[in-house]
Amino acid sequence: MSPDVAPAGLSDTAEAWPVVGSEDIYRGAAPFAVRSDELHHPDGGPDQTFRRIVVEHPGAAVILAVDDEQRVLVVVQYRHAARRRFVELPAGLLDKPGEDPEEAARRELLEETGFEAGRWTHLGSTWSSPGITAEVIHLYLAQDLSPADRGDFEAEHEEADMHLYRLPLDDLLAGVLAGRIADAPLVNAVLLARARGLL
């Protein structure tokens, strides 16, 4: 098959193929669930069904927080699924149904770093792995940082072992381009901010 010439303005589009059955694999206290859907192509018959595993996820907000000296607030945190300690940006789930992503970003920046930001810019929203999940990650640039009271927030589990650093933006970008820093939301946020000429 040879590729067609792409039409002008090619973009992602919303579409839903018929689901003829669905079964929960996991649904519990965690902020996500796993199900198995049986579906078929809209142009095919019901005898052409197939299964897909879906991870339901509420979405997340990720914050590229940059101070007046062009240093980025980064956290270093263990991630069990990858068996790796990652350099990451402050981030968190959209904990409440319908929660505004920027409000979640403000909350997570304060909880994880003890800083607030006077200026917020939405860099973009990305689908982390659409072959298996509808998770959307909302990426923000936070500037005009100032220390703030975290209130009664207490870190638990992996977050209790998290380390906070100020990393010069040029060093962070060099780490991304060299592949030493490979957390996808961090990479996306840094490259989007640079491509938009915001940093």
CATH topology of the largest domain: Nucleoside Triphosphate Pyrophosphohydrolase
How is the main sheet built? 4 strands, mixed
What is the SS-derived class?
alpha+beta
Shape: globular
The average pLDDT score comes to 93
Q: DSSP strand (E) fraction? A: 35-45%
CATH superfamily of the largest domain: Nucleoside Triphosphate Pyrophosphohydrolase
Mind explaining what this structure looks like?
With 199 residues, the chain is α+β, with helices and mostly antiparallel strands. It folds into 2 domains: 19-56, no CATH class; 60-195, Nucleoside Triphosphate Pyrophosphohydrolase. It is 18% helix and 40% strand. It is built from 3 helices and 10 strands; from the N terminus they run E-E-E-E-E-E-E-H-E-E-E-H-H. It is globular. The N and C termini lie far apart (42 Å). The mean pLDDT is 93.
Describe the structure concisely:
With 199 residues, this protein is of the alpha+beta class. The chain is 18% helix and 40% strand.
